[in-house]
Fold:
Amino acid sequence: MITQDPVIFGLLATIIGLVFFTSTSSHPIWRQVYRFIPVMVMCYVLPSLLNTLNIVDTSHSQLNSISSNYLMPACLALLIISVDIKAILLLGPKIVILFLLGSFGVIIGGPLTLLLFSYIAPESINWVGADAAWRGMATLAGNWVGGTANQLAMKEVYEVDDNLFAIMISVNVVYSAIWMSFLLICANHAKAIDKTIGADASQFNQLVNVTENASKTKLQLPSLHSYMQIFCVAFGVTGLAHFGADILAPFFAEHYPATEKYSFTSSFFGLLF
Structure:
């Protein structure tokens, strides 16, 4: 079995690279594969086979710590700075309110579901330990309001059991596929739906035009200069986040110990904050 972290990291990078490479292939076999299996599912499942098939031994690996403390914050920083706030504001207050209501629905939906099942099937709900149902639901909510990086962040913050996390990933993939199918069906009849409910899509169409024009005019091949700027911003922000976390976590632990139940005393929570 492979135990060296550099070799394991190389295998993971190779697998992820091959997944994204084949996902854009025009070969009929790969097109059929990714028609039924989403790219993100492949990115989760294939690396897990390295452990399942006893190819690697990660019991003493430091890759998880490195990924959660360095790579994940860097990815979140790049994700946030790429958000076009000006373009979002073009949509007006209605779309922002709709976004906030959708996020609130996702966040409150988890507790309500757990509450419902605590009455319907109380024996099926585990409330304590790393495999507590609420911990898994927290990662799911993180994904639905902020994507996979947020789900991974919630896993670290709430110390979710790996088996439970794998279940939540499966739940996310299944329901995301169902919801996406529904949205695609609606998209094909968008004009008729807008007319029926009296929706004004002019601002949204304006945003689409602005985004398309910007992507056409700013499209350029990345250079070494660009990569160095990305590296600087990503890990510069990560370093600053670590510096702040080392101050915030002890501060809350000393002066507000009751906030431990909200993870305020966690260094990782401070890192993401």
